[in-house]
Amino acid sequence: MAHMHDAPPMLVTLVLALALALGFGALARWLRLPPLFGYLLAGVAIGPHTPGFVADVPLTDTLAEVGVALLLFGVGLHFRLADLLAVWRIALPGAVLQVGLASLLGGALGQFGFGLGPGGALVFGLTLAIASTAVATRMLGDQGQLDSQAGRIALGWLVVQDLLVVLALVMVPAAAEAGTQGLAGALLTAALELVGFAACVLLIGRRGLPALLSGLARGPSRELFTLGVIVAALGTAYAASELFNVSFALGAFFAGVLLGESDLGHQAAAEAMPLQRIFAALFFVSVGMLLDPMALLEAPLLSAGALVAVLLGIGGVSFLLLLAFRVPARTAALVAGALAQIGEFSFLLVKFAMVQGVLPAEASAPVLAAAFGSILLLPLSQRGFARAAQALEGSAGWRAWQQGTQGPCLPRPDTGRLRDHAILIGHGRVGSVVAEALRRHGLNLVVIEADRRTAEQARAEGLRVIWGDAARPEVMQAARPETARLVVLALPDAGEACRVLDLIRAVNPAIQAAARAHDDADMAVLLAETGVELAVMGEREIALGIADFTLRRLGVATEDAQATVDALRAG
Q1: In a domain, 408, yes or no
Q2: 375 and 428 inside one domain
Q3: Containing domain of residue 527, as a range?
Q4: Are 327 and 411 in contact (CB under 8 A)?
Q5: Contact 285, 60 (CB under 8 A)
Q6: What does the pLDDT look like over 344-390, one tens digit per residue?
Q7: For 536-571, how does the pLDDT look when each residue is reduced to its tens digit (9 = 90+)?
Q8: Total Cβ atoms within 10 A of residue 8
Q9: Quick one: which of 498, 499, 421, 494 has its CA closest to 463?
């Protein structure tokens, strides 16, 4: 039997990296911190700057590159132009100005601390100017603000920031090659290459990629679709890097955009999410391996300066810009409080820039310190912005100035969003009858159907259909269960129906529900454990229908026959 020291280095690195990520991640969650803190600590533990086992750095970097690609693939899947258009008058100029001003502030710190040239200073400033989408959306979601005006502005702001990061991934190699001379020309060339690549991908892949995965989705094998999603992400990324000299991660982002625009996007996100989370954890572990604890002790002023640059350059500047756009002070405070931090994209940029030789290895320590500190200080940051907003709202001068120009810049409420609708899970023999009944009365209905062919047929009949597994959060979110009035669980399996209903009631506890059952045991589970308002068993309803017909044909009054059927149904 092979001993531990005989195990392949890849196996040892992978197992220990994942095990430590799990352990430290669970500890971070117990301490009510984001799990990425634990992942970073796991990287520090197996990194070359701490004693003990040292992971295979090149191998970890390769796995991390896959993690970055899948991370940006997920961003692409959730990218919606409509999210930006709804708030573009605020988000587009606001985010660009904020990133620009924050980059100048961070760049000045980089020049002072590391003696960086213009290109390196710009990249270092960018690492301190981009908020973490994952942290910001989670903070807003925990506060129930994602669907509010503040949530829509923040999401639009983050979309613009994400696009700037994607552009930066192309520009960093240009900055590395150009040096101090010809940087503007190199950046322009890189931007044009990005536009050309995007146009080529959109023209060729807009129909081809969804059509290919659609064919796999119609088949009986679900794992082939899952495999197709991963191949689409990594295959497009590889083709982009080999054929267009574009970064691996950028290719994955465009693959996500292509699929996100199709009706395959929700299920594709659900299929890719588990693998994305695993490799993203490995990415954060690889970033933690960069951290030299002694470097933090050797440069405490730089680390503190980076933290201040994040709080002022992202949080403070965002707050002031939103006030300048005459956004209500309380809304501006919510947005700024959620954005006043950095995370995954900053790690991505600093590591990529170090590989390209744009930033020195010492630059990672202040960025990591700023990330740790800004996320830890988020509750205090939010409280500070809230108090500033409260003080402004109490000022007569502020109220008069804000009312002077009434919000052409404010996003209008999205009246097209689903509200007070019914969600029908399954469009088979039972669900199709329910759907037809609701359609005849013009009622608002969304169908979630797992079978691809059935979903396409229902869509052809004019129904609003989401294809995918309703038990996956990424699919269910598309049906907006938080604003629905009723859910009909036309699923053959009671256990699956319970899981779907638990998912819905996590965001909408008051929703009413009806479900089908096969036997008395299913009826008991649905009524007792889930509290559905109506559970229907097929055989019983057949019997009751025949009994009602028989009673009426034998002369029993309609009211008496109905009363008997109701009593039998209740009993």
Answers
A1: no
A2: no
A3: 422-532
A4: no
A5: yes
A6: 788 888 888 888 888 888 888 899 889 878 887 888 899 999 999 88
A7: 777 677 777 787 778 888 888 888 888 887 887 666
A8: 10
A9: 421
Q: Are 112 and 366 in contact (CB under 8 A)?
A: no
Q: Note whether 242 and 371 are same-domain residues.
A: yes
What is the spatial distance between Cα 65 and Cα 558, in angstroms, rounded to a whole number? 71
For residue 36, give the nearest of 46, 24, 48, 45 by alpha carbon: 24
Q: Which H helix or E strand runs over 512?
A: strand 512-517
Judge whether 420 and 444 are in contact, CB under 8 Å: yes
| Residue 516 sits in the same domain as residue 381 | no
Any idea how long the chain is? 571
DSSP class per residue in 332-393: HHHHHHHHS---HHHHHHHHHHHHTTSS-GGGHHHHHHHHHHHHHTHHHHHHHHHHHHHHHH
Residues 263, 204 share a domain: yes
Last residue in a domain, options 347, 371, 389: 389
Domain membership flag for residue 21: no
CATH number of the domain residue 316 falls in: 1.20.1530.20
Listed residues 389, 412, 438: the one ending a domain: 389
Over the chain (571 residues), what is each successive 10-residue block's mean pLDDT?
A: 58 85 90 81 82 73 78 74 71 92 92 84 91 79 74 83 76 61 62 73 73 81 85 84 73 80 80 82 79 74 92 94 88 92 83 83 85 84 91 76 53 55 89 85 88 88 88 86 89 83 88 80 68 74 77 85 80 61
Neighbours of 453 (CB within 10 A): 12
Q: pTM (2 decimals)?
A: 0.68
Whether 432 and 371 share a structural domain: no
- Total count of domains within the chain: 2
Do 369 and 462 share a domain, yes or no? no
Rounded-to-integer distance, Cα 37 and Cα 285, Å: 10
Cα diameter, the chain:
99
Backbone angles phi, psi at 489, to 5 degrees: -95, 85
Domain harbouring 479, CATH code: 3.40.50.720
Residue 234 lies in a domain: yes
If one counts every other C-beta atom within 10 angstroms of the C-beta of residue 130, the result is 28
474 and 335 in a single domain? The answer is no
**Edge-to-edge strand list for the sheet holding 465-467:** 465-467, 445-449, 422-425, 486-489, 512-517, 534-537
Hunting for tokens 């002790």 — which residue is that?
Answer: 297
